[in-house]
Write a structure and sequence with these properties.
Order of helices and strands: EHEEHEEEHEHEHEHEHEHEHEHEHH
Largest sheet: 6 strands, parallel
Number of strands: 14
Strand content: 15-25%
Radius of gyration: 21 Å
Structural class: alpha/beta
Bound molecules: NADP nicotinamide-adenine-dinucleotide phosphate
Strand order of the largest sheet: 3-2-1-4-7-8
Distance between the termini: 25 Å
Number of domains: 2
Number of helices: 12
CATH architecture of the largest domain: 3-Layer(aba) Sandwich
Shape: elongated
CATH superfamily of the largest domain: NAD(P)-binding Rossmann-like Domain
Length: 297
Amino acid sequence: MGGRLTGIRVAMLGGDAREIVLLEELLRQGALIQVGGLPALPARDGCTWYDDPLAAVRGVQVVILPVPGVNSEGRIYAPRSEQPLYFSQELAAAIPGGTPVLVGVARPFLKDMAAARGWHLVETADMDEMAILNSIPTAEGALMLAMQELPITLHGSQAFVLGLGRTGFTLARMLAGVGARVTVVDRGAADRARALVEGWRAVAFADLAGVIGEAQVIFNTVPDMVLTAAILAATSPEVLIIDLASAPGGTDFEAATALKRRAMLAPGLPGKVAPRTAGLILARIYPALILNCLERH
Ligand code: NAP
């Protein structure tokens, strides 16, 4: 089958429903895929399944790891695999220096290995195109959690969004769309101005303590400690806090427990609430990324 990835040899290790959508798209575009740690699909031209990840990476030009990557023990995220999948030294040695290695989020284990072996490690989750598109399932998931947990409708509620970045903006828009009264808290004057243009109340972090008591639901997107014990103490006892920022989040969860505030860290929403959409986002971005990486290589 012809396509812009024709003949490019790619290894895919681990993953979930998202990577299966991606696999289908890469095959459609002509790539030759060696797969480890995903359940076998019906026989397809251009696709070979291996039990041993070492066999899957032999002779490939690009390695694709799942969005959550590899944990601190070297275990590759592979919930569909019958066997645990490890990024062993032997596996690493089979990937030549300079090979593009694509992963959503790279933790120190993988970063160290990539640096030691000279791979071209590409972290895709923080790329603007990916983060902006992923903000849609993230925001939908955040609203879903709020609807499940709150005894009130979001419509008419006092909803606070901390951080008007890629996720915060989409979330604030969706909240406004369902009729919430949106307050955006951001450290940047320009972003606060943008919030005002959208018709939302805009507050600086310096002024947060004075208004946070009004919030019925707080969504945090700031990956830094912003919901401190002092700020939490000023919140309403009925407030719900949904922290979307990457672990450990931006909430003092110990203080929240001590103050009896309901606070939850909600990681990985795109893959949980909309795996097919999240897979389509990968499928939209990865082909061009692979070509760019190989051109530069
Ligand atoms: P982003 O576009 O970089 O937005 C982050 C926001 O936080 C920006 O408004 C930024 O302000 C602000 N910020 C950062 N450090 C701050 C500090 N010390 N004090 C005050 N504000 C600060 O990031 P994003 O793509 O929206 O992602 C936000 C977080 O959500 C990340 O941790 C990301 O990993 C996570 N995430 C989670 C999910 C999920 O499913 N839970 C999904 C996607 C992303 P400036 O613009 O001034 O820097």
